[in-house]
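Exam revision sheet. Question 4 asks you to relate a sequence to its structure. Input first:
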Amino acid sequence: MNTQRTLNHPLRLALAGEMHARPFMRIEPPERVLHLALFAGDALDRHHAWLGELCECFGVSAPQRGASYFFHDFGPWRLKWENHSEFSTYTFAFRGDGSGDFADDLLRRLPQAWLGQLAGNVISAAQLAFVSAGGQPLAASDPWLRTQFSGPLIAGARVMAGGEVWSDFLVQPDGVSRFLLRDVGLREFQAGRLRA
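Answer key, C-alpha coordinates:
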Protein backbone atom coordinates (compact mmCIF):
# COMPACT_ATOMS: atom_id res chain seq x y z
CA MET A 1 0.00 0.00 0.00
CA ASN A 2 1.35 3.42 -0.95
CA THR A 3 0.93 5.46 2.25
CA GLN A 4 1.91 8.70 0.53
CA ARG A 5 -0.91 8.36 -2.01
CA THR A 6 -3.53 7.81 0.72
CA LEU A 7 -2.34 10.79 2.78
CA ASN A 8 -2.54 13.28 -0.10
CA HIS A 9 -5.55 15.45 -0.72
CA PRO A 10 -6.88 14.83 -4.27
CA LEU A 11 -5.83 18.33 -5.38
CA ARG A 12 -2.39 18.36 -3.72
CA LEU A 13 -0.29 17.58 -6.81
CA ALA A 14 -2.26 19.93 -9.06
CA LEU A 15 -1.91 22.79 -6.55
CA ALA A 16 1.81 22.14 -6.06
CA GLY A 17 2.30 22.20 -9.83
CA GLU A 18 0.48 25.51 -10.13
CA MET A 19 2.52 27.11 -7.34
CA HIS A 20 5.80 26.16 -8.98
CA ALA A 21 4.61 27.19 -12.45
CA ARG A 22 4.50 30.82 -11.25
CA PRO A 23 7.99 31.56 -9.95
CA PHE A 24 8.71 34.68 -7.94
CA MET A 25 10.13 37.59 -9.89
CA ARG A 26 13.78 38.28 -9.21
CA ILE A 27 14.09 41.84 -7.93
CA GLU A 28 17.43 43.45 -7.08
CA PRO A 29 18.23 46.91 -5.74
CA PRO A 30 17.90 49.48 -7.04
CA GLU A 31 14.54 48.65 -8.57
CA ARG A 32 11.07 50.14 -8.48
CA VAL A 33 8.03 47.91 -8.68
CA LEU A 34 4.46 48.80 -9.59
CA HIS A 35 1.85 46.19 -8.68
CA LEU A 36 -1.72 46.43 -9.99
CA ALA A 37 -4.61 44.08 -9.24
CA LEU A 38 -7.51 44.31 -11.69
CA PHE A 39 -11.03 43.02 -11.13
CA ALA A 40 -13.15 41.89 -14.06
CA GLY A 41 -15.84 39.87 -12.31
CA ASP A 42 -17.38 37.33 -14.65
CA ALA A 43 -15.82 38.91 -17.76
CA LEU A 44 -12.82 36.56 -17.73
CA ASP A 45 -11.91 37.32 -21.35
CA ARG A 46 -11.29 40.91 -20.31
CA HIS A 47 -8.12 39.86 -18.42
CA HIS A 48 -6.58 38.40 -21.57
CA ALA A 49 -7.76 41.33 -23.68
CA TRP A 50 -6.04 43.85 -21.35
CA LEU A 51 -2.80 41.86 -21.41
CA GLY A 52 -2.99 41.41 -25.19
CA GLU A 53 -3.46 45.14 -25.74
CA LEU A 54 -0.49 45.96 -23.51
CA CYS A 55 1.70 43.48 -25.40
CA GLU A 56 0.50 44.89 -28.72
CA CYS A 57 1.70 48.38 -27.70
CA PHE A 58 5.24 46.96 -27.71
CA GLY A 59 5.01 44.47 -30.58
CA VAL A 60 5.16 41.49 -28.23
CA SER A 61 3.14 38.31 -28.69
CA ALA A 62 0.62 37.85 -25.92
CA PRO A 63 0.12 34.45 -24.31
CA GLN A 64 -2.65 32.22 -25.59
CA ARG A 65 -6.16 32.57 -24.19
CA GLY A 66 -6.48 30.45 -21.09
CA ALA A 67 -2.93 31.17 -19.90
CA SER A 68 -2.70 32.01 -16.21
CA TYR A 69 0.91 33.24 -16.13
CA PHE A 70 3.06 35.42 -18.37
CA PHE A 71 6.53 36.92 -17.92
CA HIS A 72 8.34 39.13 -20.41
CA ASP A 73 11.25 41.57 -20.41
CA PHE A 74 10.02 44.60 -22.35
CA GLY A 75 13.40 46.39 -22.16
CA PRO A 76 12.59 49.42 -20.00
CA TRP A 77 10.71 47.14 -17.60
CA ARG A 78 9.81 43.53 -16.88
CA LEU A 79 6.26 42.27 -16.45
CA LYS A 80 4.89 39.36 -14.48
CA TRP A 81 1.18 38.81 -15.12
CA GLU A 82 -0.99 36.30 -13.26
CA ASN A 83 -4.65 35.46 -13.78
CA HIS A 84 -6.56 34.40 -10.69
CA SER A 85 -10.04 33.90 -12.24
CA GLU A 86 -11.98 37.02 -11.22
CA PHE A 87 -8.88 39.22 -10.90
CA SER A 88 -5.45 39.47 -12.49
CA THR A 89 -2.21 41.04 -11.29
CA TYR A 90 0.43 42.99 -13.18
CA THR A 91 3.82 43.37 -11.53
CA PHE A 92 6.09 45.80 -13.40
CA ALA A 93 9.77 46.03 -12.38
CA PHE A 94 11.76 49.12 -13.44
CA ARG A 95 15.45 49.86 -12.83
CA GLY A 96 15.74 52.54 -10.15
CA ASP A 97 18.36 55.08 -9.26
CA GLY A 98 18.83 53.79 -5.70
CA SER A 99 17.45 56.91 -4.03
CA GLY A 100 14.26 55.26 -2.80
CA ASP A 101 12.51 58.43 -3.93
CA PHE A 102 8.88 58.11 -5.08
CA ALA A 103 8.93 61.36 -7.09
CA ASP A 104 8.93 59.46 -10.41
CA ASP A 105 5.36 58.36 -11.18
CA LEU A 106 5.69 54.81 -12.53
CA LEU A 107 2.18 54.93 -13.99
CA ARG A 108 3.43 57.55 -16.46
CA ARG A 109 5.94 55.05 -17.86
CA LEU A 110 3.11 52.82 -19.10
CA PRO A 111 1.00 53.43 -22.22
CA GLN A 112 -1.60 55.97 -21.14
CA ALA A 113 -4.27 54.72 -23.57
CA TRP A 114 -3.88 51.24 -22.10
CA LEU A 115 -4.15 52.57 -18.54
CA GLY A 116 -7.30 54.45 -19.51
CA GLN A 117 -9.03 51.15 -20.32
CA LEU A 118 -8.51 49.99 -16.74
CA ALA A 119 -10.66 52.77 -15.25
CA GLY A 120 -12.92 51.44 -12.52
CA ASN A 121 -11.25 48.01 -12.45
CA VAL A 122 -8.17 48.59 -10.25
CA ILE A 123 -8.73 47.02 -6.82
CA SER A 124 -5.15 47.45 -5.60
CA ALA A 125 -2.22 49.59 -6.71
CA ALA A 126 1.10 49.71 -4.89
CA GLN A 127 4.54 51.03 -5.66
CA LEU A 128 7.67 49.62 -4.07
CA ALA A 129 11.09 51.24 -4.04
CA PHE A 130 13.77 48.61 -3.41
CA VAL A 131 17.10 50.01 -2.24
CA SER A 132 20.31 48.64 -0.81
CA ALA A 133 20.82 49.50 2.83
CA GLY A 134 24.49 48.58 2.90
CA GLY A 135 23.79 46.21 5.78
CA GLN A 136 22.60 49.06 8.01
CA PRO A 137 19.08 49.02 9.51
CA LEU A 138 17.14 52.29 9.54
CA ALA A 139 15.81 53.77 12.78
CA ALA A 140 12.10 54.64 12.84
CA SER A 141 13.09 58.15 13.95
CA ASP A 142 15.29 58.77 10.88
CA PRO A 143 14.14 62.09 9.34
CA TRP A 144 14.73 60.72 5.83
CA LEU A 145 11.58 58.59 6.20
CA ARG A 146 9.49 61.79 6.49
CA THR A 147 10.74 62.81 3.04
CA GLN A 148 9.39 59.58 1.53
CA PHE A 149 5.96 59.35 3.13
CA SER A 150 3.27 61.96 3.75
CA GLY A 151 1.11 60.14 6.30
CA PRO A 152 1.14 61.00 10.00
CA LEU A 153 2.16 57.45 10.92
CA ILE A 154 4.94 55.46 9.30
CA ALA A 155 5.20 51.77 10.11
CA GLY A 156 8.20 49.58 9.57
CA ALA A 157 9.03 45.93 10.01
CA ARG A 158 12.02 43.69 9.61
CA VAL A 159 11.16 40.90 7.20
CA MET A 160 12.77 37.64 6.09
CA ALA A 161 15.76 38.17 8.40
CA GLY A 162 17.36 40.57 5.94
CA GLY A 163 14.93 43.24 4.84
CA GLU A 164 12.98 46.21 6.11
CA VAL A 165 9.60 47.38 4.80
CA TRP A 166 8.31 50.90 5.51
CA SER A 167 4.98 52.48 4.59
CA ASP A 168 2.35 54.97 5.69
CA PHE A 169 -0.28 52.73 3.98
CA LEU A 170 -2.01 55.76 2.45
CA VAL A 171 -3.42 55.75 -1.04
CA GLN A 172 -1.69 58.73 -2.66
CA PRO A 173 -3.41 61.24 -4.99
CA ASP A 174 -2.23 59.13 -7.97
CA GLY A 175 -4.17 56.16 -6.53
CA VAL A 176 -1.07 54.21 -5.51
CA SER A 177 0.14 53.16 -2.04
CA ARG A 178 3.88 53.35 -1.37
CA PHE A 179 6.23 50.85 0.22
CA LEU A 180 9.97 51.14 0.77
CA LEU A 181 11.94 47.88 0.89
CA ARG A 182 15.50 48.13 2.18
CA ASP A 183 17.91 45.25 1.57
CA VAL A 184 19.87 44.81 4.78
CA GLY A 185 20.88 41.25 3.85
CA LEU A 186 18.21 39.53 1.76
CA ARG A 187 19.08 36.37 -0.13
CA GLU A 188 18.44 35.79 -3.82
CA PHE A 189 14.73 35.80 -4.81
CA GLN A 190 13.56 36.83 -1.32
CA ALA A 191 12.58 40.35 -2.41
CA GLY A 192 10.36 38.94 -5.16
CA ARG A 193 8.38 37.03 -2.54
CA LEU A 194 7.36 40.31 -0.89
CA ARG A 195 4.39 41.66 -2.78
CA ALA A 196 1.99 44.43 -2.04
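Marking note for examiners. Helices lie at 3-7, 12-21, 44-57, 112-117, 144-148, 190-193.
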